[in-house]
Structures are given as C-alpha cells and as structure tokens.
Design a protein that fits this description.
Chain lengths: ~110, ~110
C-alpha cells in the first residue's frame, strides 16, 4: 500500500507570493491533516479535512487555507507569503473512522520564503 | 487543554547504552499517546502508541514506553542504543478529533 505522498518536496518562493501544496493520502483514508514544523514553534496543527469538509482548525491566520477533493486528496494554500512561513509542511492521513488515533505522515514539503 | 512536555531538547548517549526520553502529559480524560520519530529530511514515523489496552507498550526498533497515570508520564526507552537511533523523537497526545498535540521534540545523538 502506497504511503502518504506530498508534492512538491522542496520549493522556494519570495515574500508576497502564494504557494499550493498537495497531499495524496493512503488509499481508503478519508481524513487529511496538515501540520507546520519550524525550529522555533515545533509541530503545529493547521487543519483537518474529512470527506471534503474542514473538521478542525488550528490557530493560524486566514492566509492559510486548505481543501479536500472527493478522492480525498488535499491541498493547502498559503497566500501573501511571509519569511516566517518558511517551514516543513507535513500532511497526515487517517482512516477517518475507528479510534486508534494513529496518523500516517508524508515526508513533507519544505518551503523556503526569501 | 491537553498538552505534552518533553524534558530535554537534546540527549546524548553512547552506543549500547540505555536510551531514556521523557514525556509528561496533561489530560482531563484518558489519553491516546504516541511516540513518533523523525529522521533528517523525512516525515514522522510512528514508534508506538498507547490506547489504554496495556500500560507497557512495545514499538518498533526495540523501543517501548510505559504509561504511568499517577505520574502523567509516557517515557520512551530502549535498552541498547544503536547508531541508527540518531533522530528526533516526538511525544504526542491526541486531542479534539484527530488532532495531535506534540511536545517540543528530543534530538538524540548516539556516540560510538
């Protein structure tokens, strides 16, 4: 079974631009979550989608948004990029049902904002 | 609110020595607790999880963790460190829905 796939793995943007990151969950998983990882703030929850609906949201500004498609693939978008948005963005998938709470993570998209 | 604290941002151990990584949690309800490992330039890989079935949980790569409710702890151990254990380790608690709240991480250095 293929794991969680994130694209692109690395990207460089400049301040003010926007970026879209993609995540394909494990086949059959209906929940996708996004996390931001930075040296200063650690791992922080951005949002979770389940069956195309945002189910949970972290404490990030409105510049951070996401969506999920009917095939469970998800995208997150960051508009008006700031230097502080440089981070590793991790996507995690979950079956969506059951109670084990285990999330499966992709390898991440490393964003550098110049 | 549920939270996780990892004591020590860096740990250095000799190859063959005991690895002990400390994690304390705060939770008003029986928690689901996890340990993840992150190797350089990679995502997070699950080492083990506690879901109230047993207090001593065995994971992959020889790691295990013991849930102690009285101490609100979920420390991770491995009897004998290997060079391949050099990585960053994260303790996490599942909170609302499927959200994970992570500790700050502990970077493990293994000395030959």
């Amino acid at each position: 079974k293929a794991g969680v796939t994130q694209t692109p793995r690395y990207l460089i943007k400049t301040r003010g631009q926007q970026v879209t990151l993609s995540c394909s969950p494990i086949s059959g998983h209906r929940s996708v979550s996004w996390y931001q990882q930075t040296p200063g703030q650690g791992l922080q929850f951005l949002f979770e989608y389940f069956s195309e609906t945002q189910r949970n949201k972290g404490n990030f500004p409105g510049r951070f948004s996401g969506r999920q498609f009917s095939n469970s693939r998800s995208e997150m978008n960051v508009s008006t990029l700031e230097l502080g948005d440089s981070a590793l963005y991790l996507c995690a998938s979950f079956p969506g049902t059951g109670d084990t709470g285990e999330l499966f993570f992709g390898e991440g998209s490393r964003l550098t904002v110049l | 609110a549920q939270s996780v604290t990892q004591l020590g941002s860096h740990v250095s151990v000799s190859e063959g020595a005991l690895v002990l990584l400390r994690c304390n949690y705060s939770s008003s309800v029986p928690p689901y607790l996890f340990w993840y490992v992150q190797y350089p330039n990679q995502g997070l890989q699950l080492l083990l999880k506690y879901t109230s079935a047993a207090t001593l949980v065995k994971g992959i790569n020889g790691f295990e963790a013991e849930f102690k409710k009285s101490e609100t702890s979920f420390h991770l151990t491995k009897p004998s460190a290997h060079m391949s254990d050099a990585a960053e380790y994260f303790c996490a608690v599942r909170t609302a829905g499927n959200k994970l709240t992570f500790g700050g991480g502990t970077r493990v250095l293994v000395k030959p």
